[in-house]
Write a structure and sequence with these properties.
The relative contact order is 0.13. The protein has about 270 residues and is α/β, with parallel strands linked by helices. The chain has 2 domains: about 80 residues, no CATH class; about 160 residues, P-loop containing nucleotide triphosphate hydrolases (Rossmann fold, 3-Layer(aba) Sandwich). Helix 5 crosses helix 6. It is elongated, with a radius of gyration of 20 Å. A 7-stranded parallel beta sheet has the order 6-5-4-7-8-3-9, sandwiched between helices. A two-stranded antiparallel sheet has the order 1-2.
């Protein structure tokens, strides 16, 4: 198994309540207060055993529920506000032995990914959690191909994605050979299929579906994903396609959910 395990620590509901209150107070000073409040209200609806407002929560002694609540709150702030995970780790001491981006939940999720399958990963905002998931596959020795809207040097510095083939989706003109123009859907198709052909156990991340749809329309990109999925199914590779469900029309999302396996981080 990858990485270190989370150590068992003594923690009670009162500790969690106090730590969350302190964290919430500091978070409001560095982020938009209205958005922070909306995120809190949203996450509270997902945890009916917990009540509270304005950062004061009542766990009613439910320690395990409280730990999961803090993780869900941190994840949503990371997705919608870009709040660094280390900010939360510094407040929640029960997570102190868990490196940023590393969790038993993520490890279990990656363990469940099956070769020959394509996964539509639903995630709001930037695909940070998806990149963490891809990093797990990278660390486990998969041959990795990343086709992304994010510049390769940023993928390396922010997510630790190294030792992989990387292609940058961009419409700027440079002489670098790792660029793909977003209108060149055929090139994406060829690159991914060629990678699958020459790697027995490959992991492919295709990030920027919304960007490709903007340039090419829904039908072209749906056909691309259907075609890539068929090639993955007769291989030992894994295809990961992150998408913000708020950024594409419901019909397109429905078709993709119907054809691909779904991982939901929303």
């Amino acid at each position: 198994m990858l990485g270190s395990r989370v150590k068992v620590m003594v923690v009670n509901a009162e500790d969690i309540e106090k730590s969350f209150e302190q964290m919430y107070s500091e978070l409001k000073d560095i982020q938009d207060q209205t958005l922070v409040k909306e995120i809190l209200e949203e996450v509270l609806t997902e945890h009916p055993l917990i009540s509270g407002e304005n950062g004061n929560i009542d766990l009613s002694g439910n320690t395990e529920e409280g730990i999961q609540f803090t993780r869900d709150f941190a994840r949503r702030c990371n997705q919608l506000l870009g709040t660094p995970e280390n900010f939360f780790l510094s407040h929640f001491y029960w997570e102190a032995d868990r490196p940023a981006g590393d969790s038993p939940e993520m490890e279990e999720l990656v363990d469940g990914l099956a070769s020959g399958r394509s996964y539509l990963v639903k995630e709001y905002g930037k695909s940070k959690t998806t990149y963490q998931m891809f990093k797990y596959l990278n660390d486990r020795g998969f041959a990795n191909l990343c086709v992304s809207r994010t510049k390769p040097t940023i993928l390396e510095s922010e997510y630790g994605l190294v030792d992989m083939e990387s292609k940058w989706l961009t419409d700027i003109y440079l002489t670098e050979n790792n660029l793909i123009n977003p209108t060149n859907v055929a090139q994406i198709n060829i690159i991914v299929k060629d990678f699958i052909k020459h790697n027995d156990h490959g992991a492919i991340l295709l990030e920027g579906i919304e960007y490709l749809i903007y340039y090419n329309g829904n039908d072209s990109i749906i056909k691309l994903l259907f075609s890539l999925n068929e090639n993955v199914m007769v291989s030992e590779s894994i295809l990961i396609v992150p998408v913000d469900p708020k950024s594409i029309d419901p019909k397109t999302l429905y078709l993709l959910e119907k054809d691909l396996e779904v991982v939901d981080f929303t």
